[in-house]
Design goal:
With 409 residues, this protein is an alpha+beta fold. It has eleven helices and 21 strands. The strands form four sheets. Strands 1, 2, 8, 9, 10, 11, 19 and 20 form an eight-stranded mixed β-sheet that branches. Strands 6-5-14-15-16-13-17 form a seven-stranded mixed β-sheet. Strands 3-7-4 form a three-stranded antiparallel β-sheet. Helix 1 runs parallel beside helix 8.
Length: 409
């Protein structure tokens, strides 16, 4: 695949998502030459994760960027609630969390990535290449030495002391490295769609649950971004039954928004997320490290995927900026990232799998009215306890803080 066109850098990152962009920004900020490859011509993709959690917002504060970040279009979510058979139950209150952000920022992922890209591009050690797809790895002496990128101008060889695979749950880097993730399965998929929002609508994110139905509504200002859970591989059967029957199910699920279901004109207005939960037993080999979804695909339960990816990126920069300044990081250096992050990932996935298998799947299969669990009644009766689920979702296990330096430090 060699073309004769060669670039050389200290680190090359495949994937311009939250993990790749944050990692590239932090390494470049620490004085490490970085190239980030993004296979698309822009970051605009609908129905990607849009929730930026307090742990990530605290890191943005530590970079001195939170005030500027909050000037970008977004909504600030301070409460989450569940509505079960028409009765509302408060679930989480973010107002009492530690740190500098007592809310979840609901921001289109393309705005989040454009914000990071703009900050990174101002650094002399950062380069972002759009429409550049990582297609293969190069190696010598048992060590990965770079990658091969496909661009509109042809094939490009990029030599690097470190290759970072941050190219998502269908990672080409992971595949080329021979890494095989351990899959944990999922009994559900998720259908994403939009419904118009009215000024009189509630502000909290809502999970609406009734017999056979689970519908999540996230306030996006002038519309609701909605997730409709279905049994695994159930979308084809839904399409075969026709759009009118699907609209009827949506009306039953959407509660106060039932009068807007006609906004779903056809199945072209519905996007399928095939839910996958997996992780790599080993994230690294000499010269190569996988992070974010490339290392561990998360369920949409809790909307924590972006946060986990960003936390991986922060840990990677914290642990590897100094080895990269010295030369080629050793495998022991790279394995420290997995050692740092593995427990947080395993804990989050264990909770997600338990919720999918023990709560969501039985609810979708049920024909009887859903009874609220005792914990929801307790959270409704004792408001201060709502900080606990808010902390679990918003901060999580082992939140990372910025320890990689700015070059001028």
């Amino acid at each position: 695949m060699a073309s004769g066109k060669i670039l050389s850098t200290r680190a090359v990152i495949a994937g311009g998502g939250p993990a790749g962009m944050m990692c590239g920004f932090l390494l470049a900020r620490a004085g490490i030459d970085v190239i980030v490859l993004e296979k698309h011509k822009d970051f605009f993709r609908d129905f990607r994760g849009d929730t930026v959690h307090p742990a990530t917002l605290n890191a943005i504060y530590e970079l001195g960027l939170l005030d500027e970040f909050r000037k970008a279009p977004h909504q600030e979510l301070r409460d989450i609630a569940a509505e079960i058979e028409g009765v509302s139950y408060p679930v989480g209150d973010f107002r009492h969390l530690p740190g500098h952000a007592q809310f979840i920022a609901i921001m289109p992922q393309w705005d989040f990535l454009n914000f990071l890209a703009a900050k990174a591009r101002s650094l002399p050690h950062f380069r972002l290449m759009m429409e550049a797809r990582a297609a293969g790895l190069t190696a010598s002496g048992g060590r990965v030495t770079g990658l091969v990128a496909e661009t509109p101008d042809g094939t490009l060889d990029i030599e690097a002391d470190l290759v970072i695979g941050a190219d998502g749950r269908h990672s080409a880097i992971r595949e080329k490295a021979g890494f095989v993730p351990r899959a944990f399965g999922s009994p559900i998929d998720v259908l994403w769609l939009r419904l118009p929002r009215k000024e009189s609508d509630p502000e909290a994110a809502l999970g609406r649950v009734s017999a056979g139905l689970l519908f999540v509504m996230i306030d996006r200002g002038d519309y609701w971004q909605c997730a409709f859970a279905v049994p695994k591989n159930g979308f084809e059967e839904i399409k075969a039954q026709g759009i009118e029957k699907f609209r009827a199910r949506l009306k039953k699920a959407a509660g106060f928004a039932a009068d807007r279901i006609d906004a779903i004109a056809s199945f072209a207005d519905v996007s399928l997320l095939t839910v996958t939960v997996d992780r790599l037993p080993q994230w690294a080999k000499p010269g190569l490290l996988c992070i974010g979804d490339a290392a561990h695909a998360m369920s949409p339960v809790g909307g924590i995927g972006i946060n986990l990816a960003v936390q991986d990126a922060i840990a990677t920069a914290n642990l590897l900026w100094a080895p990269l300044r010295r030369g080629k990081p050793t495998l022991d250096d790279l394995n420290k990232v997995q050692a740092r992050r593995a427990f947080a990932v395993k804990a989050a996935q264990a909770v997600q799998v338990a919720i999918q298998n023990r709560i969501i799947a039985p609810t979708l299969a049920s024909t009887a009215p859903v009874k609220p669990p005792f914990v929801l009644k307790l959270l409704k009766a004792v408001p201060i306890l709502r900080t606990i689920p808010a902390y679990a979702v918003g901060i999580g296990v082992r939140p990372e803080h910025i320890h990689s330096p700015a070059e001028a430090d």
